[in-house]
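Weekly modeling sync, notes
Attendees: S.R. (lead), two postdocs, one rotation student

Agenda item 3: backlog of single-chain predictions. S.R. asked that every request posted to the team notebook include the full sequence so nobody has to chase files. The rotation student volunteered to paste the first one in as an example of the format we agreed on. Action items at the bottom.

Example entry:
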Amino acid sequence: MTSRHPRTLGRLRVALLVCAFGCSASGNDTTSGGTDATAATGDETTAGTDAPATTGDAPTTSGGPSSVTDAATSNATTGDDTTTGVDTGATTTTGAIPSEPFSFFVTSLKAMQELSGSQQGFGGDLRFGEEGPGAGLRGADKICAAIAEKSMPGAGNKPWRAFLSATAGEDGEQVDAIDRVGEGPWYDRLGRLFAATKADLVSERPIGIDAAIKDDFPNEDGVPNHQPDPLQDEVDNHDFLTGTNENGQLYSPTATCLDWTSAIGDRDLEGRPRVGHSWPRYGGMGGPGPGPGPGPDGDGSMAHWMSSLDESGCAPGVNLIEMGPPQENAVTVGSGGGYGGIYCFSLIP
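Predicted structure, as returned to the notebook:
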């Protein structure tokens, strides 16, 4: 027993040394692994730090280049999903109604072409995806909202109404345009007064309207519609669909393209849409044709913004060249000088 003890002690020492080296190696692995893990965690933390910084940049109002780009990209995507391809990233976050007044415009030819997907526009069918009773009016309201949103991000969330009369709305009752648009006041895209009250609308040209826009109503961008391209000559485009008489009420049962749901061009079926003039032709308009002259309610002034004449039909069509009265054989909403544009009003300024 005594002679074997030193060997035993030696073996124990070796075992302890091996264990020590093994434990040291294991400890190094752990330390190394811990170091790597810490390093990796540190990298992730660094990456995580970068991510919040980027996220923080997006809503920053100080306007760093990256934040503006990110915000605009986000809003543009949202706009595409909700407003028929309208890019909403120009000025504000989609969903926030702008504080500046903007509650009236005439729809530009470009906007009507883009939303309809046709160079000829919508014609008399303004349903814009809506169905059922009142679809033409609801669709026209959506058209107004989509165009407003494109011009001023957030403005599309206002309660927009197209200035259109109809024989029957959702409840089956007659709809008069004057009762659709609220009580006022209304301002154009540049903040100029269009009219202060509903009573001021019922006139050949709105009472109290800003002199700069009285004889040439502006489109959604505040541009005079008679000459939308300042580098080009003026165009004949003042006919705007209303279906309305000079008092803002339904003109006749045949003046609305079947309540703004039809664009065939069949006058026997659809009638002839009544239009007003966004810019006036003072002194009247000579020559034969179905449009000029007093109608059943005594209106027919070539300067009246609500009720001036009857177009030749409800089919889509654009005519920007002065050709006198509506062309009898054209059967389109643009036959007398226009493209089937509409007036848009918001219920709030």
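Discussion: group reviewed the output briefly. The first strand starts at residue 104 and ends at 106.
Action items: rotation student to repeat for the remaining queue; S.R. to check formatting next week.
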